[in-house]
Design a protein that fits this description.
- This protein has one domain: Glucose Oxidase, domain 1 (3-Layer(bba) Sandwich).
- The protein is globular, with a radius of gyration of 18 Å.
- The longest helix is centred in the C-terminal third of the chain and has 12 residues, at 168-179.
- The protein has helices spanning 93-97, 103-107, 128-132, 140-148, 168-179, and strands at 2-4, 23-28, 38-42, 50-52, 73-74, 77-81, 90-91, 114-118, 136-137, 154-157, 184-187, 202-207, 215-223.
- Strands 1, 4, 5, 6, 8, 10, 11, 12 and 13 form a nine-stranded mixed beta sheet that branches. Strands 2-3 form a two-stranded antiparallel ribbon. Strands 7-9 form a two-stranded parallel ribbon.
- Strand 10, helix 5 and strand 11 form a beta-alpha-beta unit.
- Helix 4 (140-148) runs parallel beside helix 5 (168-179).
- By secondary structure, the protein is of the alpha/beta class.
Length: 224
């Protein structure tokens, strides 16, 4: 079974700081005389469920064109449930150390390549709270997670950005700490169908294939 982990894009899609809204402009309407319909889409490349590549914050860092298709297939997934996260909270090393990881995960920590943070904050996705009071991740987590999980290639989560809007300076540092270690960041994911008992076999990520781009909207599928 496959589960779609991306939010669909529409005019209500939240954007960081409520900037650069997703716009659909209707240009043509089909008719019975053979006229084709079409529309113009206008959006920032960091809109909706999307990935941040290193070049988003690192000068001369890798962009989409530097990755093979296989890099976006993840086979060893760790789900971290953090259900009591408060608005604007920065997820820290303490929160990870408080997790009771099963022996099977501990034994496989050298193979984990994708970590999902599920906070249930996406329940506020249609409210301003999701945009202006989103949780974030502490900058120290980049080094900590890479040491604990040396094969880690990516993280993903169900809030709008790694940067808490109310803690943007720490958010910039956090982006750098993850991206300089080659850890891709998948933001604004749809995780409501994933729970602590979900057995994810693989995650497939399909970024919009734009050459040399620093970030891209993604279609993400989980095989369960």
């Amino acid at each position: 079974m496959f589960v779609f982990l991306s939010h669909t894009l529409n005019s209500r899609t939240p954007t960081y700081g409520k900037r650069n809204n997703f716009i659909i402009s209707k240009k043509k309407t089909s008719n019975s005389r053979g006229r084709a319909s079409g529309c113009l889409l206008t959006f920032h490349n960091h809109t909706g469920t999307h990935v941040d590549f290193p070049s988003h914050f690192i000068k001369n860092g890798k962009n989409f064109s530097n990755y093979s298709q296989n890099y976006f297939i993840y086979k060893k997934i760790l789900i971290i449930n953090l259900k009591k996260i408060k608005p604007s909270y920065l997820i820290s090393i303490k929160d990870i150390k408080n997790q009771k990881l099963t022996s099977s995960i501990i034994n496989k920590k050298n193979t984990i390549d994708f970590i999902l943070f599920k906070t249930n904050f996406e329940r506020f996705r249609e409210k301003d709270k999701y945009i202006f009071f989103n949780p974030g991740i502490d900058p120290l987590m980049g080094e900590f997670l890479k040491k604990k999980f040396p094969k880690l290639k990516a993280i993903g989560f169900d809030f709008i950005s790694l940067s808490s809007f109310q803690n943007s300076d720490e958010g910039k540092k956090a982006h750098i700490e993850f991206l300089k270690r080659g850890i891709l960041i998948f933001e604004d994911m749809k995780l409501k169908l994933i729970n602590k008992d979900s057995k994810i076999k693989k995650i497939f990520c399909f970024p919009l294939p734009v050459e040399e781009i620093d970030g891209s909207p993604c279609s993400i599928l989980a095989e369960i």
